[in-house]
Amino acid sequence: QVQLVESGGGLVQAGGSLRLSCAASGSTYSINAMAWYRQAPGKQRELVATISSGVSANYAESVKGRFLITRDSAKNTVWLQMNSLKPEDTAVYYCNAKVLHPDATLYTYWGQGTQVTVSS
How far apart are CA 106 and CA 97, in angstroms? Predict the structure, then answer.
């Protein structure tokens, strides 16, 4: 099993910044990619940013230029630096990891989420 623990969420005013952290522990085997998703009340969960085992990163159009995803593969940790936050960024943010098990099966793991609230 893999456990993902997020931290860094909170309440911030519009224009402010937050940095989320996600640490993977347990039988991590080989983590191919990590990502951040978010879900606002009444809305579908959406992909915010993803980063591969290399340095390749992808972002949702709504956060490009404002958010930055980084990863330390040796520590199985991923961060999401969120700048110029807007009220529409308010959501529960979830860490996600795709882990390749020894049986060559790719598994997906989720954290429990951390609340980000941006006030106007």
Answer: 10
Q: For 67-94, what is each residue's pLDDT tens digit? A: 999 998 787 899 999 999 999 999 999 9
Q: Quickly count: other Cβ atoms within 10 Å of residue 33's Cβ.
A: 21
Nearest to 67 by CA among 50, 91, 83: 83
Residue 36 structure tokens: 């951040």
13-42 tens-digit pLDDT: 999 999 999 999 987 778 889 999 999 999
For residue 3 the two structure tokens come to 């456990």
For 103-114, give one letter per residue: b (16+ CB within 10 A) or e.
eeeeeebebebb
